[in-house]
Design goal:
Shape: globular
Number of helices: 7
Largest sheet: 5 strands, mixed
Distance between the termini: 71 Å
Number of strands: 14
Structural class: alpha+beta
Order of helices and strands: HEEEEHHHEHEHEEEEEEHEE
Length: 325
């Protein structure tokens, strides 16, 4: 019986799976990240500048006989670099021929999903203030870090004492989490833009628009607060009260957070996001095989090479508050 050489059909299939998986999974991952991340269209500039309107002009009094007062938008900008990220997967040629359960194919698909998790990792590095995949942790447009009590000039950030950091009362009880959630809500209402006007109104920051981003360690307490009908006032008491937060605010567990006690409050806004992400194009990919690679012939292994370029920067830090415990 003749033996059919399926190397080339396998190669085409693997690359097709790679592209199809990217296309199919991208919307799902974007939906998960849409709270914090603004996805920018792909472009190939190594460093790109993005201008945006920091504040909106406010009406001025127009006295009789006087000319109009011309006002302009206050522009600001952020710069985000494109950084290359690669993923190389080697597998023995015999493994590919003997792949009866689809193991090679499954690993390739999982590897592609790792590219789509880059925004999650980038965001976590900014929250943890520690760069690993990112080249560096950059300041926001006002000259300070993502979370700060003052701006780059040393003034109260967003014209409010404490900026976008609040001192928490602890994170071990639902009572403490509830108290700090309400403090964060009040803090958001005090934020002002550079025109001296409130950034948010009461409807913008009602409980239904607030999201808690917490480490896995707070899984039980945050679920009690978000979903429990009654809350005990403290762990040592059997007294309970109605839970006004039940079914209102949303929560997200973030496995990348390194501090087990600190947590965060994000505003769900129709336009603003905390971060801007330079989304990559479909990954570049190539398979090194016997026909085109000395390495493959010498070591009897084929290699999938894939790479993308992407970047992330802080855009609107006033939509994100740290509860520092």
């Amino acid at each position: 019986m003749a033996v059919i050489d399926n190397r080339y059909s396998l190669r085409a299939g693997v690359l097709a799976d790679l592209k199809d998986t990217w296309t199919a999974q991208a919307p799902l991952f974007k939906e998960q990240q849409e709270l914090l991340v603004k996805f920018l269209p792909y472009n190939n500039l190594r460093k790109a500048t993005y201008a945006w309107k920091e504040s909106i002009p406010f009406p001025a009094r127009w006295d009789y006989g006087m000319g109009r007062t011309y006002q302009t938008f206050k522009d600001n900008y952020i710069q985000i670099s494109n950084t290359a990220y690669e993923l190389s997967i080697a597998y023995n040629r015999f493994d590919a021929h003997d792949d009866q359960i689809g193991d090679v194919k499954e690993h390739v698909q999982l590897a592609v999903k790792r590219f789509l998790q880059l925004p999650d990792k980038f965001v976590a590095e900014y929250i943890n203030n520690s760069a690993s995949l990112l080249p560096s942790i950059n300041n926001a447009y006002d000259g300070v870090a993502l979370f700060s009590d003052v701006d780059g000039d040393g003034d109260d950030r967003f014209s409010t004492s404490g900026g976008n950091i609040i001192t928490g009362t602890g994170s071990a009880t639902t009572a403490a989490i509830k108290h700090d959630l309400m403090v964060a809500q009040r803090r958001l209402l005090t934020f002002k833009d550079t025109a001296g006007q409130p950034i948010f109104n009461a409807d913008d920051v009602k409980l239904e628009k607030l999201h808690a981003v917490v480490p896995n360690a707070l899984n039980a307490v945050i679920q009690d607060l978000a979903e429990g009908q009654y809350l005990r006032t403290d762990l040592g008491s059997t007294v309970a009260q109605s839970n006004i937060t039940m079914g209102k605010f949303k929560y997200h567990l973030n496995p990348y957070l390194t501090d087990a006690a600190d947590w965060y409050v994000a505003v769900e806004h129709p336009f603003w996001r905390t971060f801007a992400f330079r989304a990559p194009n479909t990954p570049n990919q190539i398979i090194a095989e016997f026909a085109n690679s000395d390495h493959a012939r010498e070591y009897n292994e084929e290699v999938l090479y894939a790479d993308v370029r992407a970047g992330l920067g802080v855009w609107c830090p006033f939509t994100f508050i740290k509860v520092n415990n």
